[in-house]
Amino acid sequence: MSDAESKRLDPNVRQTAAEKATGDRTDTLLRTDGLVKTFGGFTATDEIDFGVDEGELRCLIGPNGAGKSTLLKLITGTLTPTDGRIYYDGHDITGLAPNERVGRGISMKFQVPSVYGDLTVRENARLPVQQFADGEERRRLVAESIEAAGLAGCEEVPASSLSHGQQQQLEISMVASLEPDLLLLDEPVAGLSVEERSEIADRVTRLNDEEGIAFVVIEHDTDFVAEIADKVTVLHEGDIFREGSTEEIESDPAIQRIYLGTDGDSGGDRR
Amino acid sequence: MATEPSTGEHSGSPLARLRRRLEGPNTVGNSRRYWVGFAVAVLALVALPIATGGTGAQFSLFLVLALLGLSLSLVWGYAGVLSFGQVVFFGIGAYTFGVVSINFPTPGGITGAVIAGTVAGAVVAGLLGYFMFYGGVRNVYVTIITLVSTLVMLTFMSQTAGSEWTIGEAALGGFNGMPAIPLLTLGVEGVFTFQFVFNDYEVFVPLLGTRTFDPFYYLSLVVLLLAYLGLRVLVNTDFGRVLVAIREDEDRTMMFGYNVERAKLVAFTIGGGLAGLAGVLYAARNVYIDPSVFQLYFATLPVVWVSVGGRKSLLGAVVATIGVEYVRLALGGELALVAVGALLLLSILFLPGGIVPWIDERLSGSQVPVADVDGPDARAEVSDS
User: Fold this and answer.
1) What pLDDT was estimated at residue B5?
2) Pick from A14, A266, B102, B384: CA 20 to 30 A from residue A173's CA?
């Protein structure tokens, strides 16, 4: 998972903050240290210390405006933090451009299915793969990626003619074909049918189990969260409010007050 | 349509290998039938001066401008960067060619001036593109900046009438322009040189008798052909696919790990070089250049050509440039202005994808097995935003 440079394994070498936080001798893959993002006078994230372990499947919940999407954008690099550092796999990645972070193994699926509508399914699947595979290997990876999305036989169809659920599956295939170590999903099942939702849940847990990809999933759908999450982080007003297992979070009355509503018995989809 | 070759990239005859490079999902015409038609069209262009009894000198203007159209097709149609600044690089190429060739009016010097003009177009585009793309300027703001650049150039070049605006032997000439650009003669002294303009060649054609033709027409035809085929190869490479991906969704492409700023900069620089080369040929053909190439009207023409022909089609840019310019010249004056405006409106309203992609769709038929996906009415509208 992480490149084992001998330098970092040498106990006599002084460790950097990034190596201490997310280096080879820790299980932590990603760590944010006092991450602040303000927009004018509004504080979107307020000194967030957020961590994800290697191979973990983490869900991120919280009411609208809690800072979930901002945190994700800070991790991908599409937003620059006002203050604080982001460590990933032994390195300080705070100053890296988004595409450089993708190169380090952080990949993201957008909230709106962002496939290339005018391009065919094959062209879509080819794009992430072409930067590291050639010839026969490229063909194999593209075919596997399409197969994994359940779209075998639709290679020459423009992606815009796929259903919403198929587009979600295709995009997950595309981001997963980059072979990331950390995959960020922003509301992957919003607007999907129950059937499509369970397909996505299967897909995510399989990628997590079989390929060891760590996940951070923003999701409002509490059933979905309960189905997939190892651990849940609740954001509230720009900071981490609680962290724990699904059961702990579900039974916490304070969370029901801020997130599920004061009556406490509406555990359904709040979107 | 977009099938990966089932055999290795390096198998087959040289012709088959070349064809595989020229074909791909990002260009229309990926069939034997297309290439036969293409060959016929090229032969028709070769025979045109002879067949019409002219020298081809007039028509060569359209070929030179088609090169300018191609440069915008790459930048806008493929990389998604709507630039009104192609005429800036065109004009800078032309002026650079003029300045260098007036100072070094030997065949070697003029050949160097051609290269200098092309490079100048690319360098200026590279600099402007660097500050825009790495400065985070996107979408409509790129369009505004490039548009303003043409007006800045127009204002600047129009005030260069004074003697202080003389570079070596070459006076920029302000609004009156720069006359007396040496006749385009390429080659190296003592080895081989050839004069391409004002050098009507007499050739005996069987059945038709002796005909004269303009070597410059054939030079511009060859340059245009090479540029078209070269760009076809480029847009069907991995890099070309990244450009198309950036056009379709810049953020998504960045989050696949691509350096979108660099990719746009490379495309913009290549486009600037092509526009510069077009400017060189334009100045060489007219042996004259003036600031009118930076005028708003001229700056909008490439956008009209590429819109009418189909911005996502290199062939569309060439066909529409020749067509629109032919009509514009035939009508002349105010009427041409109205006709060009009407043409742009009509194409945006009725053929937003452009003429050539529309014809291609009609000829090839819909090959998309939509019914396999989600029922017959599942295909979403493909709007050309």
Assistant:
1) 45
2) B384
At B96, list the tokens.
Answer: 């650079």
Q: Is the pLDDT of residue B366 over 80?
A: no
- Token pair in block for residue B230: 């070269």
Q: Report yes or no: A105 and A180 within 8 Å, Cβ to Cβ.
A: yes
Distance CA A22, CA B350 (A): 57
Lowest-confidence pick of A11-20, A218-227, B67-76: A11-20
Residue A14 distance to chain B (closest CA, Å): 31
Tokens of B16: 């088959």
pTM: 0.88
* Separation of alpha carbons A166 and A113, rounded Å: 9
Q: Which residues pair with B185 in a beta bridge?
A: B195
> What is the Cα–Cα distance from A35 to B360, expressed in whole angstroms?
53
Residues with Cβ within 8 Å of B350's Cβ and at least 6 positions away in sequence, in order, are none
DSSP label of A153: T
- C-alpha to C-alpha distance for A23 and B244, rounded to whole angstroms: 38
Contact A119 B256 (CB under 8 A): no
In angstroms, the separation between the Cα of residue A98 and the nearest Cα of chain B is 7
Confidence category of residue A259, pLDDT binned at 50, 70, 90: low
Q: What is the mean pLDDT of residues A146-171?
A: 94
| pLDDT 10s digits, B191-245 | 888 888 887 777 777 777 777 788 899 999 999 999 999 999 999 999 999 999 9
Helix extents (H) in B104-139:
107-134
Instruction: Determine the residue type at A15.
Output: Q
Mean of pLDDT over chain A: 87
Residues of A in contact with B244 (CB under 8 A): 116, 119
Q: What is the ipTM of this complex?
A: 0.85
**Average pLDDT, integer, range A189-214:** 92
Type of residue at B177: G
Q: What are the residues of chain A with a beta carbon less than 8 Å away from any beta carbon of chain B? A: 76, 78, 97-99, 102-103, 107-108, 110, 114-120, 122-123, 126-128, 130-131, 135-136, 138-139, 142, 153-154, 156-158, 160-163, 166, 174-175, 178
- For chain A, list the strands marked E by DSSP: 28-39, 42-48, 51-53, 57-61, 83-88, 91-92, 106-109, 182-186, 214-218, 231-236, 239-244
Four-residue CA torsion sign, A49, A234, A80, A182: positive
Backbone angles phi, psi at B83, to 5 degrees: -110, 125
d(CA A44, CA A51): 18
Q: Which amino acid is at B232?
A: R
Q: What six digits make up the tokens of A107?
A: 């990949």
Distance, in angstroms, between B227 CA and closest chain A CA? 25
d(CA B249, CA B246): 5
CB contact under 8 A, A120 and B8: no
Distance of CA B322 to the CA centre of its chain: 11
Q: Hey, are the CB atoms on A114 and B256 less than 8 Å from each other?
A: no
Yes or no: say if A151 and A181 are a contact pair by the CB < 8 Å rule. no
- What's CA B116's distance to the chain center, in Å? 18
Q: For residue A69, which residues of chain B lie inside 8 Å, CB to CB?
A: none
The mean pLDDT value for A97-121 works out to 92
Distances (CA, A) of A104 to A3, A99, B355: 11, 9, 44
B56, with CB counted inside 10 A (0-12, 13-18, 19+), is buried
**C-alpha–C-alpha distance, residues B278 and B284, integer Å:** 10
Residue with tokens 């023409």: B301
